[in-house]
Amino acid sequence: MSDSNHKYFTLKTEHLEPYLKFPSGLSLKQAKQNAKAIKKAQSITQSEALKLICWGNGLPDVKDFEQAIPRIIHSTFGKSHDNFGIIQADDKWVGFWYTEEDLIKSIRVSGITSTIESMTSELVKHLTTLKESPLKQRKFLSAVKKCIEFLGHYFYTTSDNIPLSKVTSIHEIHIDLDALLFAGGGSGGETLMSYVLASCYDSRGTAKLLMERAIDIKFRNDGQAKFDISNQHDRAELSEYASEYRQFGAMCYNLDKKNKAIVKDLLDNYQGW
After folding, report:
1. Residue 252 φ/ψ, nearest 5 degrees
2. Each residue of 122-137: b (16+ CB within 10 Å) or e?
3. What b/e string do you get for 142-175 counting C-beta neighbours within 10 Å, with b at 16 or more?
4. What are the pLDDT digits (tens) for 31-41?
5. Which of 31, 59, 84, 161 has the most crowded Cβ, counting Cβ within 10 A?
């Protein structure tokens, strides 16, 4: 394929091999090593050994290893071999392309060496993210629901007021940051988890509200009508009013195992709100 001076290429299997995995998760590289061991131990051919590997790793119906390659590619990337590749312009590799809903999407890549290997690496990272995204979205939503169940139901609404259990998208949950951060009170663990959830929802808005609250507490406590940002003493004094429970370090020693597991799931699966 070509578009003006851009040429769109599919990739040879040899360029994809370092990234290929069976449905079971076994890498093709490891599979070939295992096949060598089976070949030697069972006195069979490499082709027969690879077929046995296929049968035990999610491809029980293949009759020949070459039949398995297209399926391994699809299992790895979520797309057929002819639905992605790299782009060349002016005899240089400049980016990659892939199809999505029958449309060709192209992404130009800069700042890396213009080689087939480097562009393939960038393509693989992008396709892997696309493939993992739906699963991560489900896991992130599940972690958010667990966090809400721990904190209570006073700080959010849902689209069309559907029950939380019926929510299927993170975008159906609408959080009142002020209520989440300041209306609940409760233990240090609750304060920490409210901060975690608020940061996932709107990190900039959360930082803004916490700063405003610290300034407000300072003014109420010391009676000052003005705050001189150029004054080192005033700046240092302001830090005394920042919540110790809204710091990363506090999570490390104040959260129990259950809430640490929720935080881990949020970290592992966060892709934005």
Report:
1. -65, -30
2. bbbebbeebeeeeeee
3. ebbbbbbeebeeebbeeeeeeeeeebeebeebeb
4. 999 999 999 99
5. 84
